[in-house]
């Protein structure tokens, strides 16, 4: 992946930096991000829109991995930013992200979160439901402040990794149903409302998607709706946001397309449809998360204990687990790994990699073909850049790992490892009086 290589000592290197040295300097578990690969992915999306001469915004879905340095890198690569909570919004603003580049999502934004977004003057609110429409209208009126919005709709196209289904009515907690009148109602409540500037439509059809058919289909349905509003209300939509969900390769079973292909196919279908509908070509916005940072992240762990279950399997345990990567336990997600200090040796062992948390399901990889492993070796698990650190927890009061960025032989700590002091920081002593 990306700038990974094997040094003459047989060590895995990323961005020209020896992962064994990183493990020594920063400790393990450690997330290492290949900055060059993130840049390459970002440019892959952006350049394709430019080549096709389509006005676009590529917004980084920061739920995949967010921290101040990540937002700063995204801005350097001219991405917009998708945030889904007050916490992400706060971090992005702290990082210096220009507010107009921020799109704010969420199916239950609180009044505090909306106030924060309006105070900051974020670029766009992606409005999800009628409750939110009422809130925003009221707040915008009271503040006499213009608010740009997109309406999030569920088009009845759902992508499931390798295929997709279309349903008349999508059962989703998100957005307005496109087909049962909800989207039209949301439109009527917003398109002429004072201080509300309706830009267009948004949809997100799923995550880790490997083909482009479902994106095209969703795009067509949204363009149909735009055409209807154009005809019936002379309303011109200026933005069509098709969400994120572009797949990456975790194991050899996954065969994702290049960012360029996703964009090209999507644009081809939308352009044709727009032409037929006789409406102006809207700006196309997308929201990749996983495909920008997923394969750029590698987790480093130190191997500790070893257990043989005769005739069944051999476990090796590492110093992290479901507290820094819940995806195997939660989604049966598959990963590949290597013993990073023996990367040039043959992979002639089969191990199940266990985490250190008190739960039998805390296994990171089942039956991994690996080099012979001993306590003290460094295990590198690939493609952990999306929804790894982002979903990390303090389960078992385990501290969250540190995160480093590497590029061109340089390395930099971007998130410190949590300390035990951090872990008890919000705890207060017990003070209730013992009853009689
Ligand atoms: N836009 C919206 C509205 C979304 O809900 C999501 C992801 C994205 C963009 C970015 O999708 P991506 O390009 O990263 O696939 N925790 C799960 C993934 C949850 C995705 C939620 N929404 C996982 O670890 O696989």
Automatic annotation (TrEMBL):
In terms of InterPro entries, this protein maps to:
Ala_racemase/Decarboxylase_C (IPR009006), DAP_deCOOHase_LysA (IPR002986), De-COase2_C (IPR022643), De-COase2_N (IPR022644), Orn/DAP/Arg_de-COase (IPR000183), PLP-binding_barrel (IPR029066)
Please list the residues that bind pyridoxal 5'-phosphate: 245, 287-290, 387
Molecular-function annotations in GO: diaminopimelate decarboxylase activity; pyridoxal phosphate binding
- What positions does the entry give for substrate binding? 290, 327, 331, 359, 387
- Keywords on record: Amino-acid biosynthesis, Decarboxylase, Lyase, Lysine biosynthesis, Pyridoxal phosphate
Q: Which residues, if any, are the signal sequence?
A: none
Q: Which residues form the active site?
A: 358 (proton donor)
Q: Please list the cofactors this protein needs.
A: pyridoxal 5'-phosphate
What Gene3D superfamilies does this protein map onto?
Alanine racemase (3.20.20.10), Lyase, Ornithine Decarboxylase, Chain A, domain 1 (2.40.37.10)
Report any Pfam family annotated for this entry. Orn_Arg_deC_N
For the Orn/DAP/Arg decarboxylase 2 N-terminal domain, which residue ranges apply? 37-293
* Orn/DAP/Arg decarboxylase 2 C-terminal domain ranges (all copies): 31-385
| Reactions it catalyzes | meso-2,6-diaminopimelate + H(+) = L-lysine + CO2
Which E.C. number(s) belong to this protein?
A: 4.1.1.20
A single GO BP: lysine biosynthetic process via diaminopimelate
N6-(pyridoxal phosphate)lysine modification, residue list = 63
Please name the pathway: Amino-acid biosynthesis; L-lysine biosynthesis via DAP pathway; L-lysine from DL-2,6-diaminopimelate: step 1/1
How is the quaternary structure described? Homodimer.
Task: State the protein's purpose.
Answer: Specifically catalyzes the decarboxylation of meso-diaminopimelate (meso-DAP) to L-lysine.
**Family in the record:** Belongs to the Orn/Lys/Arg decarboxylase class-II family. LysA subfamily.
Q: What is this protein called?
A: Diaminopimelate decarboxylase
What gene name is listed for this protein?
A: lysA
């Amino acid at each position: 992946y990306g700038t990974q290589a094997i040094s003459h000592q047989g060590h895995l290197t990323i961005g020209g930096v020896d992962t064994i040295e990183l493990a020594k300097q920063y400790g393990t578990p450690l997330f290492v991000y290949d900055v060059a690969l993130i840049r390459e992915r970002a440019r892959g999306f952006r350049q394709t829109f430019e080549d096709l001469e389509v006005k676009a915004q590529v917004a980084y879905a920061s739920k995949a991995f967010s921290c101040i340095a990540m937002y700063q890198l995204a801005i350097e690569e001219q991405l917009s930013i998708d945030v889904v909570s007050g916490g992400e919004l706060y971090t992005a603003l702290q990082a210096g992200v220009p507010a107009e580049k921020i799109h704010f999502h969420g199916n239950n934004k609180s009044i505090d979160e909306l106030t924060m977004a309006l105070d900051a003057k974020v670029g766009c609110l992606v409005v999800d439901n009628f409750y939110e429409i009422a809130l925003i209208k009221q707040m915008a009126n009271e503040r006499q402040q213009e608010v740009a919005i997109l309406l999030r709709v569920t088009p009845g196209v759902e992508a499931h990794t390798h295929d997709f289904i279309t349903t008349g009515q999508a059962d989703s907690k998100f957005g307005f149903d496109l087909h049962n009148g909800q989207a039209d109602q949301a439109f009527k409540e917003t398109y002429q409302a004072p201080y509300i500037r309706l830009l267009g439509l948004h949809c997100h059809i799923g995550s880790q998607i490997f083909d482009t058919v479902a994106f095209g289909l969703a795009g067509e349905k949204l363009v149909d709706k735009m055409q209807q509003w154009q005809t019936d209300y002379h309303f011109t939509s200026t933005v069509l946001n098709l969400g994120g969900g572009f797949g990456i390769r975790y194991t050899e079973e996954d065969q994702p397309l290049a960012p360029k292909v996703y964009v090209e196919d999507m644009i081809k279908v939308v352009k044709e449809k727009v032409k037929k509908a006789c409406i102006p070509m809207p700006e196309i916005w997308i929201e990749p998360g996983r495909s920008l940072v997923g394969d750029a992240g590698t987790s480093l762990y130190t191997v500790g204990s070893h257990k043989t279950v005769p005739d069944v399997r051999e476990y090796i345990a590492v110093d992290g687990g479901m507290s820094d990567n819940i995806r195997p336990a939660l989604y049966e997600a598959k990963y590949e790994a290597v013993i990073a200090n023996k990367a040039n040796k043959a992979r002639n062992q089969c191990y199940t990699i266990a985490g250190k948390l008190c739960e039998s399901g805390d296994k990171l990889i089942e039956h991994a073909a690996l080099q012979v492993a001993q306590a003290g070796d460094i295990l590198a698990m690939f493609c952990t850049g999306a929804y790894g650190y982002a979903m990390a927890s303090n389960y078992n009061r385990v501290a969250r790992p540190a995160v480093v960025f590497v590029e061109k032989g340089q390395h930099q700590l971007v998130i410190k490892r949590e300390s035990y002091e951090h872990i008890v920081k919000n705890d207060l002593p017990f003070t209730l009086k013992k009853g009689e």
